[in-house]
Amino acid sequence: ALVLLLAVGSRAVWSPVLRVVLIGGLCVCTLWGGFTQRGSARTQAPEVAAHLNVAPAGSVVIFCPDQLGPSTMRLVHNPGLKAYGYPRFDDPNFVNWVDYDEHLTQANVTADAAKIISMANGRPIFLDTAQGYAQAGYTCAALRTQLDRTLRHQVVVHGDNVKYFQSMNLVEYFTGPRTQPAISAG
Predict the structure, then answer these.
(1) Stretch 79-106: mean pLDDT
(2) CA separation (Å) from 155 to 107, 144, 172?
(3) For residue 26, what are the contacts with CB-CB under 8 A and spacing of at least 6?
């Protein structure tokens, strides 16, 4: 379809020489753009999944926003994890877009943080979050703030939005007995 549109559109250029230069330049730019994107990293999901794959059995993973779940979960091979998409606490392999903004704005992050801590039952909690997701960004930032205030935590993956299109932050929260010094990072 693109080649057909290019051929039809090029007919509007009267000069045959200019037409060839225009089409050649467009082809070179298209090839160059494809070449430069060929090996670029799209998501930090492999880095996040590497940490989740060695997480203790029973660990709770929250993807906030849940849009981070599918790209990460396809790389997670740890059957002992309890993983959920936020705000609905549903399967993180899929995103339910029905009334999505409504669910985000109605989220009660204080109650939800307590629910997450209860679900962990003394096991670690991992919060996979990112910035730049409009309403989800505000809700997820509030959830992270609530968990940060409540639990010892450390950032195990720092989001890099320069290198990755879909950058991610993975925060580990400790709910059990203190076995190592807490590293507080924001």
Answers:
(1) 93
(2) 24, 11, 6
(3) 6
142 CB-near residues (< 8 Å, 6+ apart): 109
Run of H or E residues at 125: strand 125-129
Number of H helices and E strands in the chain, helices first, is 7, 5
Quickly list DSSP for 17-86. Answer: HHHHHHHHHHHHHHHHHHHHHTT---BSHHHHHHHHTTSPTT-EEEEESGGGHHHHHTT---TT-EEEET
Encode pLDDT of 21-58 as tens digits.
887 888 888 888 777 666 666 889 999 999 999 999 99
Q: Give the 3-state secondary structure of residue 175.
A: coil
